[in-house]
């Protein structure tokens, strides 16, 4: 991408060069740059469009613990499994405590969507399903190092959560703090997870080829996130939802 070619062409001779490249990838490719997110955070969407975003994003959120269970299964090293398994609890919750999926359902319910409909995933866009399923398949198919590397979008997540909390509370009268608890909780969880993954790839990617594979895994993940917003924009901003997709009130033909 413009402005990053000199970084991308540099040989990845050590862990510092790897981290520099990873951060450059995030700066150029993270989905906070997508026009749909700019509209979401800037108050330029209507309620139906926000509903469509939350509905589709549920499929991603509810697939994260499945993805993490697959990652965990790739490691015979107990310490890595112990460190990774809290991610599943973060999203699924535990006895007597809610997790991220439940907090996301608080958001969709607060937006006026029926929880059973959201959980059924019947109304999501085909591109959402294809992209998220591809991510789950990726972590099971690629080497374990790349499976962990694909989670490194969490390095850039806190800033987008802060923008989302501030922007949506400011611009939408149908949003209140009680339905934004998912993002507030991730402000604490994402840096912890990202730091472990970054330390892991810095330590275990010991050759230029392995470091390049780590970077390609992160690029793959940014594409997974970006294409979901492409689909949302085409369906609900341009106005071409595919057959079977959720149709917000007022968009019916």
Describe this structure in words.
- This protein has helices at 5-8, 15-29, 35-41, 47-73, 78-92, 100-110, 115-120, 126-141, 144-149, 157-171, 181-204, 208-238.
- The protein has a single domain, classed as Heme Oxygenase, Chain A, CATH 1.20.910.10.
- α4 (47-73) packs antiparallel against α5 (78-92) and α10 (157-171) packs antiparallel against α11 (181-204).
- It has 253 residues and is mainly alpha-helical.
- It is built from 12 helices and no strands.
- The chain is globular, with a radius of gyration of 18 Å.
CATH architecture: Up-down Bundle
Strand content: under 5%
Q: Specify the CATH class.
A: Mainly Alpha
Task: Name the CATH superfamily classification.
Answer: Heme oxygenase-like
**How many separate helices?**
12
CATH fold annotation: Heme Oxygenase, Chain A
Instruction: State the helicity in percent bands.
Output: 55-70%
Structural class: mainly alpha
Structural domains: how many: 1
Spans of at least 5 consecutive residues with low confidence: 1-7
Q: Could you give the count of β-strands?
A: 0
For the residues shown, what is the average pLDDT? Answer: 92
The value of Rg in angstroms is 18 Å
Order of helices and strands: HHHHHHHHHHHH
Shape: globular
SSE topology:
Elements: H1 5-8, H2 15-29, H3 35-41, H4 47-73, H5 78-92, H6 100-110, H7 115-120, H8 126-141, H9 144-149, H10 157-171, H11 181-204, H12 208-238
Helix pairs in contact: 2-11, 2-12, 4-5, 4-6, 4-8, 4-12, 6-11, 8-12, 10-11
